[in-house]
Amino acid sequence: MVVDYLDSFLTLVFNARYTDPRTLVVKFCRGLKSNIQSQIATMPFGQPANTNLEAWYAAAQRIDQAWLTNEAFQSTLRSMTTAPTCSALSRSTPLLMFCLPQSTLPPIPPRPALPVPVRKLNSKLE
Q1: What's the number of domains the chain is made of?
Q2: pLDDT digit of tens for each residue in the chain (126 aa)?
């Protein structure tokens, strides 16, 4: 998590006595997860300046929080093992819900082909 990295980074900065804002931003970026750093660096608007360390902290925390929220949402989707079927829905169910075919039904076996009647050329039809 970015918060844990930020705590460690601030301790290291304090101990190293770095003061140049551009150097601090570069060092901070190098320690970020590459996907978070890339998202900040390629923001279409609101990208923090290369000398504004506080803005980089805030942007990294926002992206990390959004990623964690999305990951939690995706994990709940993955953990859902069943979905409501048409028979399980009641009148109070919103119409936007969709019905899934029941997976407990056995597959339909293929039908054998019907024989095609063969007519003799010289025979009369009655």
Answers
A1: 1
A2: 899 999 999 999 999 999 999 999 999 999 999 999 999 999 988 899 999 999 999 999 999 999 988 888 888 777 765 555 555 555 554 544 444 455 556 667 777 766 666 666 665 555
Contact, 32 vs 2, CB < 8 A? yes
Q: Is residue 63 part of a domain?
A: yes
Is residue 107 assigned to a domain?
A: no
Q: Which residues pair with 100 in a beta bridge?
A: 85
The DSSP annotation for 41-106 comes to HT-SS-PPPTT-HHHHHHHHHHHHHHHHHHHHHHHHHHH-----BGGG--TTS-TT--PBPPTTSP
Evaluate whether residue 34 is within a structural domain.
yes
Instruction: Answer whether 56's CB lies under 8 Å from 48's CB.
Output: yes
Considering the entire predicted model, what is its pTM? 0.58
Owning domain of residue 13: 2-79
